[in-house]
Amino acid sequence: MRGGRQPIVATPSTTLVELTWIEKRIEHWIRFGHKVHEQVLDQRHRVVGFAPNTTFAFVRWAANDFGTIISRIDILRAVRDGEPFQTLPFVRPGGDILLKIDRWPKVEQVLQAIDAIEALGIDPVDVAPDHWRHIHNRLNAGHEPRPYTRERHHAWLQRRRAGP
After folding, report:
1. What element of type H or E holds 36?
2. Under a CB-based contact definition with an 8 Å cutoff, are residues 35 and 49 in contact?
């Protein structure tokens, strides 16, 4: 226990993500998402968890002596028990992949889109899942994605309240 706080315990339905941070070699981090679990394994490794049906962004970057070997961002929805899911390295059991982008120029565009959403005062975890799919599809097709707007966000919140 650190600082007298109780450790947050993962439930069986928690989606777990293994994070590694070895400066300038392997850097895995969460760009956004609300953690419900965190376990520090050692100075360079930890495991974080997300509740079912919540969204988070997982960034992976790695390099060797010759330069970057992987640069990737995945935006996932943590699945509920019994739901189908896609597997992904370092994510247990997996998730509903809303966006999967690799190569730094495109990863940077996704990070800028997240920054723009936050500049609107909107938490990226609350963004319509279709918007992440839109960004994924547009970037993979070599096109500029449309920006997320307050109006679109309001429509998404209304649809979510009315839906099952």
Report:
1. strand 35-40
2. yes
pLDDT of residue 164: 67
Q: Give the SS3 label for residue 26.
A: strand
Picking from 60, 58, 70, 62, the residue whose alpha carbon sits closest to that of residue 95 is 58
Three-class SS state of 159: helix
Rounded mean pLDDT, 51-58:
97
Phi/psi of residue 52, nearest 5 degrees: -55, 145
What DSSP element (H or E) covers 94? strand 91-102
Quick one: pLDDT band at residue 163, thresholds 50, 70, 90? confident
Global confidence as pTM: 0.90
Query: What are residue 70's phi and psi, to 5 degrees?
Result: -150, 140
Q: How far apart are CA 70 and CA 113, in angstroms?
A: 20
User: What is the 3-state secondary structure of 117-158?
Assistant: HHHCCCCHHHCCHHHHHHHHHHHHCCCCCCCCCHHHHHHHHH
State the DSSP code for 105: H
Give the DSSP letter of residue 63. E
Q: How far apart are CA 137 and CA 153, in angstroms?
A: 19
CA distance 26 to 125: 25
- For 59, other C-beta atoms within 10 Å of its C-beta total 19
